[in-house]
Amino acid sequence: MVLAGGMSRRFGCDKCSFRINGKTMLDRLVSELDPLIVTRHKRGYKREVVEEGEYGGPLKGVKEGVKHVRGEKVFITGCDYPFLTFRVVSSMCEKNYKVVSFYDGKVQPLLSCYSVSYLRDAIRKASRLSDLVTLSDEIYYVGYYEMKMYDPLLASIQDYDSITTHTKLRFSNSLVVIK
């Protein structure tokens, strides 16, 4: 599931529509993962859920999206991670835990795989996105060394969420990864 309905305030424009080497950040995720897209306005993807009502942040997006998830596991991310790979997602979701989350010194709920049954229960108790990870009594944290086994360049975990990143992407070829 890709949350694609944020305000993009730090980024300065709709980050899902921002192009890196000719391809939008959201298109990169769609072609790599074929995810369910949760958005606040129609974007034209075949697997898309449009949130109704006022903006309620990413937790509202997850609440809406999980209603449409079929299967036992769901990986949740945002457009912030345009180089996330199928190998990373599948490796994390293969683990037999309620929550498998990347950990870089803080909880990363948008780089996590969840048991759908756990998520449906936790979403009712959560008051913020990080609660989806921390409420679980069964968490597996993936650190940098393990992540490097799935993605040696760690491109999957590069977070493109701010205007600083946006500016660096526009003006520094060394930061643009060509896939």
Q: What would you note in describing this structure?
A:
- Helices cover 32% and strands 20% of the residues.
- With 179 residues, it is an alpha/beta fold.
- The chain has one domain (2-175): Alpha-Beta Complex (Spore Coat Polysaccharide Biosynthesis Protein SpsA, Chain A).
- It is globular.
- The two termini are 21 Å apart.
Shape field: globular
Span between termini: 21 Å
What is the N-to-C order of secondary-structure elements (H for helix, E for strand)? EEEHEEHEHEEHHEHH
Number of helices: 7
Strand content: 15-25%
What is the count of distinct domains?
1
Tell me the helix content: 25-40%
Return the CATH architecture.
Alpha-Beta Complex
Order of strands side by side in the largest beta sheet?
A: 5-4-1-6-8-7-9
